[in-house]
Write a structure and sequence with these properties.
Chain A has nine helices and 19 strands. Chain A is an alpha/beta fold. In chain A, helix 7 (302-319) runs antiparallel to helix 8 (327-341). The longest helix of chain A has 18 residues, at 302-319. The radius of gyration of chain A is 21 Å and the shape is globular. The mean pLDDT of chain A is 96. Chain B is α+β, with helices and mostly antiparallel strands. Chain B contains four helices and seven strands, in the order H-H-H-E-H-E-E-E-E-E-E. Chain B is globular. The model of chain B has no long low-confidence stretch (mean pLDDT 95). The interface between A and B is large, with 42 and 45 residues. Chain B: Residues 59-88 form the 4Fe-4S ferredoxin-type domain. Chain B: Keywords: Iron, Iron-sulfur, Metal-binding. Chain B: GO terms for molecular function: iron-sulfur cluster binding; metal ion binding. Chain B: InterPro entries: 4Fe4S_Fe-S-bd, 4Fe4S_Fe_S_CS.
């Protein structure tokens, strides 16, 4: 029996765990990775945001700090290398643990916070099953966790923050990034990321996408093409690039299977990149005992995930009767910080998406 | 245009480059940050109040060039690697550029490296005057360039003797 089971040990889940444990709640953190930290442990770049959100600190350092923090709490247990497979009405979650999945556990939890993150999107193109075609997250894992470079000449598909950041990390690993293509007419990620890659000589082609890959046993060549505003290939604009690796950074989708299974009311919100659970501003879903935080609540970034985690952790603990000195004030501050983070033109879609997924007061 | 290419235009740069008089007085910061994003470490890092405190986390940095000493502490604070310090007063013919650098190998003091423009194009060779290793691993390279190149050079390429790719 635990008070709060937190599913996912990335920035959102870790933040939720630390906050709830600091208020005295018995917390069980379940994570499927070999080590905690989620995507943070691959993030070698410095974070944006404000000091409170670890601005200027590299993601790997943030993970280290948070993993250190959770060790301070005797009331916080970690179940690592484990996948939650289901949630049942009698407050029981089922857990499959171990590399071979041969340990089955059941855990009764008064509240659960789902912070399962996201999965990477794939792109349809000719020969996309050739070895040498990777998703950006896989490339980051190989390089930054295991010290293995994926190839020597890379085409990056997608100029969002992930595409830009992973391109930069590839350059740091001494790998040639031949080009970045972006289907949209403008760069989606932070322009400072784009500028720092440009000045290292990597071209960024907007309104371009990957048409096909060539190769016998692995990727040997990629053909990119300009596209029009209807995303149709413009004949005669093809370029051939000699690359051995194609890295796809074409977006993420919320990993919300558990929320579907648990019976939360779900909604397709394109601005949040997929199906998300409806939630109130405490991050509580339509199920009274289930909270969400991070990318599973809508694709955003780690700073907002950490804030959502804190909001969920705080409110889940309060709902169980744990006390927080000046709760109102703490709660208001976190929500205000989150609002400020999103108060810029780039976050316009996020704001619209969150509005669509929000259960307003008095909704009951 | 910046949003399509990742390269700031002359119009973009005109808004953030200090006047000729200030440039002539010696080292001063150039912040090539043109997009409102939630980020404020530069303003926090400045001990002289030259990068004005932000009212909103999404503000663009505003510099009071009369207060800027060109100390360069903000350079490695910037997650976007968008901050440079230019000293047009460095010597008779040369300007000094301090730029953030997170690549390996680091050049050595006195080493001659390629000076790159905002598109990564080679503008010529330039001498490294100083290499400042910073704890957060955004190191600072001081580069001697012809004065006419001071607003063009924004990166370097070091020839890797051990690992030529």
């Amino acid at each position: 029996m635990t008070d709060i089971a937190i599913i996912g040990g990335g920035p959102a889940g870790l933040s939720a765990a630390i906050y709830a444990a600091s208020l005295g709640a018995k917390v069980t953190l379940v994570d499927d990775g070999l080590e905690l930290g989620g995507q943070l442990i691959k993030q070698t770049h410095k974070f944006f945001g404000s000091e409170k959100q670890f601005a200027g600190i590299r993601g790997i350092e943030i993970a280290k700090k948070m993993i250190q923090d959770i060790k301070e709490y005797d009331n916080l247990e970690v179940i690592a290398n484990a996948t939650v497979t289901g949630y049942y009405e009698d407050e029981v979650i089922t857990i499959v643990q171990g590399v071979n999945g041969d340990i089955l556990k059941k855990l009764k939890a008064k509240r659960i916070i789902v912070a399962t993150g996201a999965s990477e999107n794939i792109l349809p193109f000719v020969n996309n099953d050739l070895p040498g075609v990777y998703a950006a997250g896989a490339v980051q894992t190989l390089m930054n966790l295991y010290g293995v470079v994926p190839g020597n000449n890379i085409l990056m598909v997608g100029a969002g923050n992930i595409g830009l950041i992973v391109s930069y990390q590839l350059l740091q690993a001494g790998i040639k990034v031949e080009a970045i293509v972006e289907a949209l007419p403008r760069i989606g990620g932070y322009l400072v990321h784009a500028s720092k890659i440009r000045r290292l000589g990597v071209p960024i082609y907007t309104s371009h996408t990957l048409k096909e890959a060539y190769g016998t046993d692995c990727v040997e060549k990629a053909v990119i093409s300009e596209i029009n505003q209807n995303f149709e290939f413009i004949p005669g604009t093809e370029k051939e690039l000699e690359v051995d690796t194609i890295c796809l950074a074409v977006g993420l989708s919320p990993l919300s299977d558990l929320l579907w299974q648990a019976g939360c009311q779900m909604k397709y919100v394109p601005e949040l990149c997929g199906h998300v659970a409806l939630r109130d501003d405490n991050m509580k879903t339509t199920k009274d005992k289930i909270y969400i935080a991070g990318d599973v609540a809508g694709i955003e970034e780690a700073s907002s995930a950490m804030l959502e985690g804190q909001i969920a952790g705080l409110n889940a603990a309060i709902s169980l009767g744990y006390k927080c000195d000046n709760y109102q004030e703490q709660d208001r501050k976190l929500k205000e910080e989150l609002k400020e983070l999103r108060d810029n033109p780039l976050s316009e879609e996020i704001r619209r998406g969150v509005e669509k997924a929000l259960i307003k007061e008095g909704w009951d | 245009m910046l949003e399509r290419t990742g390269i700031p235009t002359d119009d973009d740069l005109e808004k953030i480059i200090p006047g000729k008089k200030r440039l002539a007085r010696g080292p001063v910061v150039i912040i090539e940050c043109f997009q409102k994003i939630p980020c404020d470490p530069c303003a926090i890092s400045c001990k002289f109040g030259a990068i004005k405190p932000f009212k909103d986390i999404n503000d663009l940095p505003q510099v009071d060039f009369t207060k800027c000493t060109g100390c360069g502490i903000c350079i490695s604070s910037c997650p976007g690697l968008a901050i440079f310090v230019i000293d047009m007063n460095y010597s008779e013919g040369k300007a000094l550029i301090k730029l953030p650098y997170e690549m390996l190998p680091l050049p050595e003091k006195g080493e001659v490296v390629y000076a790159l423009d905002r598109a990564g194009g080679k503008l010529g060779k330039a001498k490294v005057a100083k290499v400042l290793k910073i704890k957060n691993k955004t190191n600072i390279i001081s580069l001697e360039v012809p004065k006419s190149m001071a607003m063009k050079v924004r990166s370097i390429k070091v020839e890797d003797k051990n690992n030529e790719r």
